[in-house]
Amino acid sequence: MTAAAATVQFASSRTVAAAPRRAVASPLPPRCSACSLRSTCLPCGMPTADVGDVDGVIRSRRRIRRGEHLYRAGDPFTALYGFRSGFFKSYVDTPDGQVQVTGFPMAGDIVGLDGIVTGVHTGGVVALDDGEACVIPYAQLQDAAARSPALAHQVHRMMSREIVREQGQVALLGNMRADARLAAFLLELSEKFAARGYSATDFHLRMTRDDIGSYLGVTLETISRALSRLQEQGLITAKLRTIAIVDVARLRRLVPQL
User: CB within 8 A of 246, min separation 6: which ones?
Assistant: First the structure.
């Protein structure tokens, strides 16, 4: 289900399904107003005076071990999740029984919007390493947003960002050659790491090359060849899952939209 449909449903839906049994959630997470990730998570861009409206919504956090699912397709929708740490893979199951990777959320990202309209999740999210997520119960978020225009506006901004991300993914899977798709993917990761205070040019990939290929709509072999070509051109170095971007400007020129 698209984020556009979810935006409409936010204003009208008040029914939330019962919570499935999951790993035990820890109470009393750090307050959003004091969290180092507030600049990339739900409070991103909110006036400081209004961030406290989010604090009362988040009642617990959940630890997710590597290989564990946060949720699967068909699970009842009860909450959104804001990652505090870790690296994850979102995916959907295709009609022919394959798995299509749809994203790689990390600390500061919000997931779960896919379940708003139907009341069940349409895809899954699995941990690629150990992580932790703040649980944002959707019923409480709706109630808080009804009392706080600033929070309601922020939730719609969050949904709008998801629409933009989906549009970017469609463009990425359009007519770009494999080298351009890979370049765009690496630059996206670079920007996300930089926004979280990490190196923008040296990072470790938690996902496999097969996962990257699924996300970019190409085969594993195509990803391997594209990595080799980018290295031969002196744009990156790649050793196992460690990537170093050597020439950001030239890498950016491979991507028509950037």
Answer: 201, 234, 235, 236, 237
Task: Please list, in sequence order, all residues whose beta carbon lies within 8 angstroms of the beta carbon of residue 70, skipping any fewer than 6 positions away.
Answer: 62, 64, 81, 88, 111, 124, 125, 126, 127, 133
Task: Tell me which CATH code domain 3-148 carries.
Answer: 2.60.120.10
What tens digit of pLDDT does each residue of 114-134 get?
Answer: 999 899 999 999 999 999 999
Q: Which residue has the tokens 């804001």?
A: 82
Are the beta carbons of 247 and 235 closer than 8 angstroms?
A: yes
Q: What is the dihedral of CA 67, 70, 72, 76, to 10 degrees?
A: 160
Q: Does domain 173-253 have CATH number 1.10.10.10?
A: yes
What residues form DSSP beta bridges with 79?
137
Tens of pLDDT, residues 185-223: 999 999 999 988 899 999 999 999 999 999 999 999 999
CATH 2.60.120.10 maps onto the chain at: 3-148
pLDDT at 39 over 70: no
CATH 1.10.10.10 spans which residues of the chain? 173-253
Whose CA is closest to 131, among 115, 111, 114?
A: 111
pTM confidence score: 0.81
* Residue 19 confidence (pLDDT): 39
